[in-house]
């Protein structure tokens, strides 16, 4: 629920605002508030439990495509990495296939490439991958507005992220 700094309720509202701006209705957003899955990078999440929550959401909403983090978690955040680990096990991927759902992971890049912004486009185009998304200027502005909804998390370095991160412009995905 994003309650690491006791901002869980604030962050839930910020998430709903961000999703609304992106055209995702609140009824399609599920916030998990479970004692075994705290927003805390020092706590190792139960991967089976996490996978079961994701599978329930997929089945309840008839989802056929999931995009998650890769093994690097994009920022190295332990909770992001746990999500990848939970969804990349053979048994879970087999379940995804059985229900007709494909899983892609957002590729982590090194720090230099992460902050090259649009200058990373040629590099990403040359590297192998399963999918490459290059946002239009309008889509980039929409993504930035959605990120700004998360006011409680907008520390100084996240403002730099909004300005310079390649993830605001380009995203490379790999199929699991």
UniProtKB/TrEMBL annotation:
InterPro entries assigned: GlcNAc_PI_deacetylase-related (IPR003737), LmbE-like_dom_sf (IPR024078)
UniProt family annotation: Belongs to the PIGL family.
First-level EC class: hydrolase
Tagged with keyword Transmembrane helix: yes
Top-level division of the source organism's lineage: Eukaryota
Pfam family, one: PIG-L
Keyword annotations: Membrane, Transmembrane, Transmembrane helix
GO CC terms of this entry: endoplasmic reticulum; membrane
Transmembrane segments: 81-105
Gene Ontology molecular function: any one: N-acetylglucosaminylphosphatidylinositol deacetylase activity
Listed EC numbers: 3.5.1.89
Keyword Membrane on entry: yes
PANTHER family documented for this protein: N-ACETYLGLUCOSAMINYL-PHOSPHATIDYLINOSITOL DE-N-ACETYLASE, N-ACETYLGLUCOSAMINYL-PHOSPHATIDYLINOSITOL DE-N-ACETYLASE-RELATED
Protein encoded by which gene: Pigl
GO biological process, one term: GPI anchor biosynthetic process
Protein name, entry field: N-acetylglucosaminylphosphatidylinositol deacetylase
